[in-house]
């Protein structure tokens, strides 16, 4: 379903994860923090058996609610932490559920910053039971600083007004649309969920800052002149916590084209309530100005709106109005249709 041609085979081979998964939602109450679970449900449904959440959780993927034992009986082979919270932490309240999964015969797969083996007592229990603790958020060894060298091939990067509003979904949908048009294109995963879906990539937010641009260069290497690398964006240049990873990815990927991702109606930064979202005009302008440092020919092809909270008619009206106002195609890649086709046309113009 997803094309990827990772140049770092050692790390890619390490991602032979035990499947299918039981998606763990922890005690999550904010849908934006459950984006890993939603991403696996939407883009790799054949790998998902069900979901498991603590009583405190208020979000759901809509998959069958199963205990670890029930999931194991249905064929699940690992509990995959489907949460991407601020700081990538594993709270103490989760530990008993993780132990329950190990005791039910499941390995544990995590994309959190905190290593599973560093959770007190977990490694000892896993060792005793013969279970695996698998951390996905590991950058490849031997990264170098960015060179700024112009590389062959074409590149598209998804950028955003904030975190958790559709950069990964947009990159996946665009890469599939390009392939459907007969073009040579690969999805390049830069975050934990994308890596779990595609089976390879670099977790950019786990890379030391000095090597961010170099990691992005490795993620999208020299390619044939007509080849497209569609790079999954991270964070936002405007986010008070995550702007650094966004800038390193922007400089290193050297995109020829950007698509700006946004959720209409969102007004404040996820996890940083005292910071307002930038305007779409500010977002386009800043990404183009900073991106021009390593690719003076960078341009914005249009915008991707996450309209999952809107009805069909309202979503179409909002996108049409913003398209007229900005003079650029605006589409929801999940809704597709003529608007998305025009966005792809603009990318290829």
UniProtKB/TrEMBL annotation:
Lineage of origin: Bacteria, Pseudomonadati, Pseudomonadota, Alphaproteobacteria, Sphingomonadales
The D-glutamate N-acetyltransferase-like C-terminal domain, residue ranges: 145-337
Organism: Sphingomonas alpina
Domain D-glutamate N-acetyltransferase-like N-terminal, first and last residues per copy: 60-139
Name assigned to this protein: DUF1611 domain-containing protein
InterPro entries with a match to the protein in the record: DgcN-like, DgcN-like_C, DgcN-like_N, P-loop_NTPase
């Amino acid at each position: 379903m997803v094309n990827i041609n990772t140049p770092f085979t050692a790390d890619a081979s390490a991602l032979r994860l035990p499947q299918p998964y039981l998606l763990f939602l922890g005690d999550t109450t904010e849908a934006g923090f459950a984006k890993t679970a939603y991403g696996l449900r939407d883009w790799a449904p054949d790998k998902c058996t069900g979901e498991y959440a603590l009583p405190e959780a208020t979000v759901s993927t809509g998959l069958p609610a199963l205990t670890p034992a029930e999931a194991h009986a249905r064929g699940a082979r690992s509990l995959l932490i489907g949460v991407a919270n601020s700081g990538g932490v594993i709270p103490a309240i989760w530990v008993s559920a993780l132990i329950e999964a190990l005791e039910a015969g499941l390995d544990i797969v995590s994309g959190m910053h905190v290593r599973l083996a560093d959770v007190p007592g977990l490694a000892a229990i896993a060792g005793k039971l013969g279970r695996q603790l698998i951390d996905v958020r590991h950058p490849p060894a031997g990264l170098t600083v960015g060179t700024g060298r112009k590389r062959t091939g074409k590149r598209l990067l998804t950028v955003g007004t904030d975190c958790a509003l559709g950069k990964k979904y947009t990159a996946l949908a665009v890469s599939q649309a390009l392939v459907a048009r007969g073009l040579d294109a690969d999805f390049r995963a830069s975050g934990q969920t994308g890596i779990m879906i595609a089976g390879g990539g670099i977790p950019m937010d786990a890379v030391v800052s000095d090597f961010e641009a170099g990691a992005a260069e490795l993620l999208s290497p020299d390619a044939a002149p007509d080849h497209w690398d569609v790079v999954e964006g991270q964070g936002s240049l405007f986010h008070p916590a995550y702007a650094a990873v966004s800038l390193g990815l922007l400089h290193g990927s050297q995109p020829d084209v950007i698509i700006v991702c946004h959720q209409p109606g969102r007004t404040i930064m996820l996890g940083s309530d005292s910071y307002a979202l930038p305007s779409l005009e500010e977002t386009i302008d800043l990404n183009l100005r900073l991106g021009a440092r390593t690719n003076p020919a960078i341009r914005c092809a249009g915008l991707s709106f996450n309209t999952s909270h809107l009805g069909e008619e309202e979503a179409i009206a909002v996108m049409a109005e913003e398209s007229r106002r900005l003079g650029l195609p605006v589409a929801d890649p999940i809704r597709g249709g003529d608007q998305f086709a025009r966005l792809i046309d603009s990318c290829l113009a």
